[in-house]
């Protein structure tokens, strides 16, 4: 077994921040998972429904790997990304840094991983790899998926080669912290204001606060939209609460990021934004509960209530982001 030494194989709540934590701790930079999420300007919202989809999807973060690119740019990290269509070259891109004593991040389709508890396809899943032998790979995934886990090299190859929504071409990456990297504390303001700008000024109505408002209108129709309401509605709610979001569609993570920042920076806008996101996190969990009850009972009143809460959340998050956009004034 070839294994990178001194890897802290802690599983977090979210796959991409879990992986970033593994890679950066190995470089001597230990940041909390909420801080990684916030410095990467990870919070967002999308209401996604297409003709080829069985049911609408509510997303609460930026696109896969955008968080990693944001974090690397903001902290001055050396991010080296490898992509290829060749399975042989893809393996070399992973084995070389591990042989040299460095863990590697991988983007893949979680459906093919032997240990994964959900067999739905998700091509934006990210894991850290830190060892291998002739049969298996050693990975770090979220706490929910087991933290330090193993999967066969065959299943790993299938996961990396998968094609479909959000997949990448055998993407692997490493991170290096340079000696002159800025202190994370000094990058809080640009991280928060960039996230607020994107949320407040989305290019289409499905994104940001406009997307939340749209969800408030359309969620009321979900009993008619669903092929199997008893399956589809609770399934959508589970994705909001338990599919690597940290709960409340990533709002718990962002709330905790703002709380941590408030201990580092004395800013009234930051404290006000934290209070509003603490309220928003509670609201998102309430929405998930109402959607679940609608699916279990077939009672449309639960969806009317969920729509009303979402309408309030669109206003609340808009106010929170307007306040946070003024951070540092």
Automatic annotation (TrEMBL):
Residue ranges occupied by any DUF4872 domain in the UniProt entry: 155-324
Domain Butirosin biosynthesis protein H N-terminal: start-end pairs: 14-142
Domain of life: Bacteria
Pfam families referenced in this protein's UniProt entry, alphabetically: BtrH_N, DUF4872
Descriptive protein name: BtrH N-terminal domain-containing protein
Organism of origin: Streptomyces millisiae
High-level lineage: Bacteria, Bacillati, Actinomycetota, Actinomycetes, Kitasatosporales
């Amino acid at each position: 077994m070839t294994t990178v030494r001194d890897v802290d194989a802690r599983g977090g709540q979210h796959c991409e921040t879990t992986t970033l934590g593994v890679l950066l701790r190995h470089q001597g930079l230990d940041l909390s998972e909420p801080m990684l999420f916030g410095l990467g300007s990870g919070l967002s919202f999308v209401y996604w429904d297409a003709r080829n989809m069985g049911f609408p999807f509510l997303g609460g973060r930026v696109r896969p790997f955008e968080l990693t690119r944001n974090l690397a740019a903001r902290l001055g990290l050396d991010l080296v990304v490898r992509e290829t269509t060749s399975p042989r070259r893809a393996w070399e891109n992973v084995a070389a840094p591990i042989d040299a004593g460095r863990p590697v991040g991988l983007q893949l389709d979680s459906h093919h991983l032997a240990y994964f508890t959900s067999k739905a396809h998700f091509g934006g899943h990210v894991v850290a790899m830190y060892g291998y032998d002739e049969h298996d790979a050693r990975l770090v995934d979220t706490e929910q998926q087991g933290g330090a886990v193993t999967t066969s090299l065959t299943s790993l190859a299938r996961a990396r080669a998968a094609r479909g929504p959000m997949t990448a071409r055998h993407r692997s990456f490493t991170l290096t912290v340079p000696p002159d990297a800025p202190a994370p504390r000094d990058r809080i303001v640009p991280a928060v204001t960039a996230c607020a700008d994107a949320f407040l000024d989305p290019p289409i109505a499905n994104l940001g606060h406009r997307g939340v408002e749209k969800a408030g209108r359309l969620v009321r129709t979900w009993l008619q939209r669903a092929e199997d309401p008893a399956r589809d509605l609770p399934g959508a709610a589970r994705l909001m609460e338990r599919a690597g979001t940290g709960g409340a569609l990533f709002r718990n993570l962002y709330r905790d990021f703002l709380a941590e920042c408030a201990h580092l920076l004395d800013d009234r806008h930051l404290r006000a934004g934290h209070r509003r996101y603490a309220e928003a996190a509670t609201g998102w969990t309430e929405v998930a509960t109402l959607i679940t009850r609608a699916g279990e009972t077939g009672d449309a009143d639960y969806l009317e209530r969920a729509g009303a809460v979402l309408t309030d959340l669109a206003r609340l998050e808009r106010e929170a982001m307007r306040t946070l956009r003024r951070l540092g004034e």
